[in-house]
C-alpha cells in the first residue's frame, strides 16, 4: 500500500500538514482513495492547476458543493456563467468599497461581544467572539438584516457538512440537505423584495448589477452561490482570525511586538496566520483530458484538489514553513486561491480579520490561553481551532 492509499479522513481531519509534507517529498501529485481526489501539494503545481481552466475545469461532475447547494455555483463554473456570478458578487467586496463600510460595520458588531468578555473575565473566543462577528458582518453586508447569529452559525455548520463531504457520507449529506432547504426558504423573501426595491447590499448587487434595465438575474440562478457565500464568507474570516490569535498567543514575543505596533503588525500577523493555517484548504477541479503533473499522469475526468493549504507550507517557497513567524518576507500565501476563482471576498475577509484581532488586542492586551484548555485544530478542507479558551490578566 502506498502512502497516499493509507491516508484516512480522520488523519486529515486531525492534522493534514504532516501528510501534505510527506506527499510534497515523495508523491507531490497522488490519488487519495479515502476522499476520491487527486491531491496536488506543491506551490507551482497548485498554481498551475488553478490557472489552467482549459485542462483543470471548475465544472466538476461529482462536486459535494453542487450536490449540497445546487448549481450553478461561483465555485463550480467557468466562462460566461462564472463571469455573470462574479459580476454580481464583486461590487460589494472591492477594496475601496470595503474600506468605506467595513470599519463601522465590524466595530458596531464587535463592541457588545467585547463588553461581555470584559464582564466575564474569560471567553471561548470562537463561539463568543470570532464566529459571531464574522457571521453577522457577512450577513449584514449581504442584506440579511433580520437573521440572528445563532441561526447563521447553525446554517454555517450545516452547510459545511455538505461542502466537505467528499466521501459522500449519507449522515453528513442529510444534515446539509436540510439546512440548504432552510436557507433557501429564509433568503427567498429578501431576494424577492430586492428584485422590486434595489439597495446597496451584496444580494441586491447580485440581482441587478450588469443586467439590462428592468431585468434581474433569476433567484434560482443565484441561490446556490448565496449558500456558498454564507459558508465561505463566514468561515474564512472567523476561523482565520481564531488561528491567527492562536499563533500570537503561543508565540508571546511576537505578540509583544504586535501590541507595540498594532497598526503595522496586525496585518502582518493576519497574513502569516493565513499562510500558517489556511481556513479553506482546496480549490477543486476536474481534468478535461489526461495530463502529466508532478511526474504522474492524471486521467481525464478526474477530480483534483489543488491544496492551497499545502502550497502555503511548501519548503521550496517558505523557510521552516511549519513555524508561525510574523517577520516573514517570502511572498504571498495561497489561502485566497489562484486564478480567476481567487476568493471574491478576500478584501472583506482580510479587513474583518484585521479589525477583529486589533479590537480584541486593544481591549485586552493581557489576553492569555487557559491552561489545560489549549486549542486543538480540526479539519483539512475547513481548518480552525475547535475552541479557543482565553482569560484576561496575568497568570
TrEMBL record:
**A Pfam short name:** p450
The cofactors named for this UniProt entry are: heme
The GO terms this record gives for MF are: heme binding; iron ion binding; monooxygenase activity; oxidoreductase activity, acting on paired donors, with incorporation or reduction of molecular oxygen
Name the family. Answer: Belongs to the cytochrome P450 family.
Q: What is this protein called?
A: Cytochrome
Q: Which organism is it from?
A: Rhizobium loti (Mesorhizobium loti)
Amino acid at each position: 500500500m502506498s502512502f497516499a492509499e493509507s491516508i484516512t479522513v480522520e488523519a486529515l481531519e486531525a492534522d493534514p500538514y504532516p501528510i501534505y509534507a510527506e506527499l510534497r517529498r515523495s508523491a507531490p501529485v497522488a490519488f487519495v482513495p479515502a476522499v476520491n481526489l487527486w491531491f496536488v501539494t506543491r506551490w507551482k503545481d497548485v498554481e498551475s492547476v488553478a490557472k489552467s481552466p482549459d485542462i483543470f475545469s471548475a465544472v466538476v461532475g461529482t462536486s459535494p458543493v453542487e450536490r449540497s447547494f445546487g448549481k450553478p455555483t461561483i465555485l463550480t463554473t467557468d466562462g460566461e456563467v462564472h463571469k455573470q456570478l462574479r459580476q454580481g458578487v464583486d461590487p460589494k467586496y472591492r477594496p475601496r468599497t470595503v474600506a468605506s463600510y467595513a470599519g463601522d460595520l465590524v466595530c458596531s458588531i464587535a463592541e457588545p461581544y467585547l463588553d461581555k468578555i470584559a464582564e466575564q473575565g474569560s471567553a471561548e473566543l470562537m463561539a463568543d467572539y470570532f464566529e459571531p462577528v464574522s457571521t453577522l458582518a457577512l450577513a449584514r453586508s449581504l442584506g440579511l438584516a433580520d437573521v440572528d447569529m445563532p441561526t447563521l452559525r447553525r446554517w454555517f455548520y450545516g452547510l459545511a457538512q455538505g461542502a466537505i463531504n467528499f466521501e459522500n457520507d449519507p449522515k453528513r449529506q442529510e444534515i446539509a440537505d436540510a439546512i440548504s432547504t432552510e436557507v433557501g426558504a429564509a433568503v427567498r423573501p429578501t431576494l424577492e423584495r430586492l428584485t422590486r426595491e434595489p439597495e446597496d447590499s451584496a444580494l441586491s448587487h447580485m440581482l441587478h448589477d450588469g443586467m439590462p434595465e428592468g431585468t434581474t438575474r433569476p433567484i434560482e440562478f443565484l441561490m446556490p452561490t448565496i449558500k456558498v457565500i454564507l459558508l465561505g464568507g463566514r468561515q474564512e474570516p472567523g476561523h482565520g482570525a481564531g488561528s491567527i490569535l492562536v499563533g500570537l498567543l503561543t508565540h508571546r514575543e511576537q505578540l509583544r511586538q504586535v501590541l507595540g505596533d498594532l497598526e503595522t503588525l496586525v496585518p502582518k500577523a493576519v497574513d502569516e496566520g493565513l499562510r500558517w493555517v489556511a481556513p479553506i484548504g482546496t480549490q477543486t477541479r476536474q481534468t478535461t483530458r489526461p495530463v502529466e503533473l508532478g511526474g504522474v499522469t492524471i486521467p481525464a475526468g478526474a477530480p483534483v484538489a489543488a491544496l492551497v493549504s499545502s502550497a502555503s507550507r511548501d519548503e521550496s517557497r517558505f523557510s521552516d514553513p511549519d513555524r508561525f513567524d510574523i517577520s516573514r518576507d517570502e511572498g504571498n500565501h495561497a489561502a485566497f486561491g489562484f486564478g480567476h476563482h481567487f476568493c471574491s471576498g478576500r478584501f472583506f475577509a482580510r479587513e474583518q480579520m484585521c479589525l477583529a484581532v486589533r479590537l480584541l488586542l486593544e481591549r485586552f492586551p493581557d489576553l492569555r490561553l487557559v491552561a489545560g484548555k489549549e486549542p486543538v485544530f480540526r479539519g483539512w478542507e475547513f481548518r480552525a481551532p475547535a475552541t479557543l479558551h482565553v482569560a484576561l490578566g496575568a497568570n
